[in-house]
Design brief:
alpha/beta; 12 helices; binds nicotinamide-adenine-dinucleotide; Isopropylmalate Dehydrogenase
Length: 358
């Protein structure tokens, strides 16, 4: 069975870290005989240079004919923001792609390796044996998609934003969270503001109903203000966190700093048919692009998520995650995760260390 992967490296460090992820996927393909077929396509500023479009027709076609998409990052340096090449780059490419695919579930694993505790902004004793949280964020509803209004009344300026959810949207994201928890530590924390918001009251009620389909999963509700504290105070208590679009936006960025570098956190976004787009949480890092020093871990772990969620290849995904862990445990470091006294490897050298463990 051929598994078709669209590969959109994009801009900045995108092509450098994508090269690393492809080497890893090819090694896994060789080892487990999986018949991957890679189709590379341009997106973002790189596509604009050739087609005068950030998301050209050719790229759309390759995506629509694929079984999953591995995405790098798009965007340019702030100093070039005035250039046509970068104007609307993100909204025309990655945001358009997310919309076209109907991605409604964003999964962001946040892992703090005990070996990297020195680069985490939180205390070693809080990290303990390590932190491993999966934030499941609803992506297609909530206050971002309701009506936004500004108006004047009696000489005073007003603004309103409408937050909306229907029970089917909540049930769909709830199921993604509970199903994913089955293969983890079997705990779901649902985060809302049910003491105030009507959308949150509906959210809590529907998630509770869904939890009854998953009796083997421990389930708790938590108010978002409390969760924002607990994610810093006792992060290792969390397994899967499921939450609405806006709360997820904020909590996942807060949690993303726990590992200590943006180069460490992958993400997956899925649609109702479980078609997925996989990408690092960070951007195109123009400040280090072209120097061969970017950390490829987020891109490599995004490839592992692709194997798990799009192809159901759990053993193969674990082989990648384990190889990354072994490279770290064996003291391999890129510059963003090295502390004083540790020497840093290039992107290619670090990738070789990962490959040596597969
Ligand atoms: P950024 O995530 O690109 O970089 C922030 C900091 O993290 C930089 O110092 C960078 O060097 C570092 N960093 C990020 N990834 C790294 C890696 N793999 N290895 C080592 N260091 C890494 O955020 P930014 O600087 O705010 O944005 C740069 C560009 O990326 C902008 O054009 C922005 O619009 C775009 N962007 C794109 C996406 C996307 O493609 N989904 C997401 C966020 C930002």
């Amino acid at each position: 069975m051929i598994r078709r992967i669209a590969v959109l490296a994009g801009d900045g460090i995108g092509p450098e870290v994508m090269d690393a992820a492809l080497k890893v996927l090819r090694r896994v393909d060789e080892r487990f005989k999986l018949s991957f077929e890679f189709k590379e396509a341009l997106i973002g500023g790189a596509a604009f240079e050739k087609y005068s479009a950030h998301f050209p027709e050719e790229t759309r076609k390759i995506c629509s004919e694929s079984d999953a998409i591995l995405f790098g990052s798009v965007g340019g340096p702030i100093s070039e923001a005035h250039l046509e090449k970068w104007r609307g780059c993100e909204s025309n490419s990655i945001l358009a792609l997310r919309k076209a695919l109907g991605l409604f579930a964003n999964l962001r694993p946040i892992k703090v390796y005990p070996e990297l505790r020195a680069i985490s902004p939180i205390k070693g004793e809080v990290i303990g044996e390590g932190i491993d949280i999966l934030i499941v964020r609803e992506l297609a509803g909530d206050i971002y998609f309701g009506e936004h209004r500004t108006f004047e009344k009696s000489g005073c300026r007003y603004a309103t934003d409408l937050a909306e959810y229907d029970e089917n949207q909540i049930a769909a994201i709830g199921r993604v969270a509970f199903e994913t928890a089955r293969s983890r530590r079997k705990k779901v924390t649902s985060v809302d503001k049910a003491n105030v918001l009507a959308t949150s009251k509906l959210w809590r009620g529907v998630i509770k109903e869904i939890s009854q389909e998953f009796s083997e999963i421990e389930y708790e509700d938590m108010l978002v203000d409390n969760c924002a504290m607990q994610i810093i105070r006792r992060p290792s208590d969390f397994d899967v966190i499921v939450t609405s679009n806006m709360f997820g936006d904020i909590l996942s960025d807060a949690a993303a700093v726990l590992p200590g570098s943006l180069g460490l956190t992958p993400s997956a976004s899925l649609n109702a048919e479980r078609f997925g787009l996989y990408e690092p949480s960070g951007g195109s890092a123009p400040d280090i692009a072209g120097r061969g020093v970017a950390n490829p871990i987020a891109q490599i772990l995004s490839a592992a998520l692709l194997l798990r969620f799009s192809f159901g290849l759990e053993k193969e995904a674990l082989s990648i995650e384990d190889a990354v862990y072994r490279a770290i445990a064996g003291s391999a470091r890129t510059v963003d995760i090295a502390v004083e006294g540790e020497s840093a490897l290039s992107t290619a050298e670090f990738t070789d260390k990962v490959l040596s463990h597969i």
